[in-house]
Amino acid sequence: MNGFLPSYHDPVFSIILIVLIAIAVAMVAHAWGVYRRERLQKSLYSFLDKFDTASCSLEEEEVPYEEGMAKPLLLLAKAFEQSGNYAKAISICLYLIRHTRDDELLIYLGSVYLRAGFYQRAEEIFLEIIGRHPRRKDVLRQLEYLYESLQEFDKAWEALEALRAQGEETRAMEEHLRFLEIRHDRERLPSEKAEALEQLLGEEPSLYRPILQELFRLDTQKAWHHVRAERLPEILDLLWYLPPAQLQLDIISQKPALRALYYARGDLAEAPEETLGNFAVDMLGAARRSGYHEGDLAFGYLCTACKQSFPVSFVRCPACLALNTLKVEERLVQQHAQNRDTLL
């Protein structure tokens, strides 16, 4: 036996000891990793228990879970979400998560809660995910949007900082957040807000439409000075629905495009020689020259990123959350008797 085991003075003994220590450390590290993962898993999903009874209408006794059900049920949940039936989408997600413990499903559930307006539940889910996966950019973006919606701008900046630290391009989101901070600042006077927005417009031309829309609320005269003929398609609906009291006829008379627009709307009696270059507006102008005065415009809004259309305007797309991707789409309709409602 003494001949088999090396003496502790033997270099071989030291090598064996080092190997044994390395194996022991590896086993302990593995065991600790398994324990930590199980603990995180339990922490990640335990808070969903309080949602199950109130939100999940699928019961195990009525709908026994089987392996092949996950994909069809997820597609059904997305169909319900697209149609606006968030309650059913949430119910299916909770049922699937209870049986699969899938992080991606949990993130999707958070996004459904976010779109449904359940901000507190969405925040809890996203924070749990970030606690476990700090580098999830998709979750950080949704968390930033959530805080943006709640007007908790300090937390929104923290989410942007985390994205920027990972090399993500955040300039558009930062400028949008600056715009929102100015818009919702209760300590600034309207004149101070208007000045700050003008400065921001000079730095970030992509915010042209939202800034113009806000300037028409705060200072009509300043807003008119920023109306550019080349950017008219971006604000066509804003100008079309502008109340007559807010029209600046001295500015309109100097710009052929504006003369064509407001003649087509019926605010100018004299027909201009110029056309706007917009089919719907020019058709209305031609009809008015011919004595037909019952035409009008209606507007829809397209997201150029996800190609979805919406009946109301937006800065962030309600579907894909993309910024500054709105395209105004106009169409000819018959004029109604009631007064036009302003979009501003």
Mean pLDDT across residues: 84
The largest pleated sheet is described as: 3 strands, antiparallel
Q: Tell me the total number of β-strands.
A: 3
Distance between the termini: 94 Å
**How many DSSP helices?**
16
pLDDT < 50 runs, ≥5 residues: 337-344
Q: How large, in whole angstroms, is the Cα Rg? A: 30 Å
Helix/strand class: mainly alpha
Helical content, roughly?
A: 55-70%
Shape: elongated
Helix/strand order, N-terminal first: HHHHHHHHHHHHHHHHEEE
The gist of it:
The protein has 16 helices and 3 strands. The protein is mostly helical.
Description:
The protein is mainly α. It has 16 helices and 3 strands. A 3-stranded antiparallel sheet has the order 2-1-3. β1 and β2 form a beta hairpin. The protein is elongated, with a radius of gyration of 30 Å. The N and C termini lie far apart (94 Å). The relative contact order is 0.05. The C terminus is likely disordered.
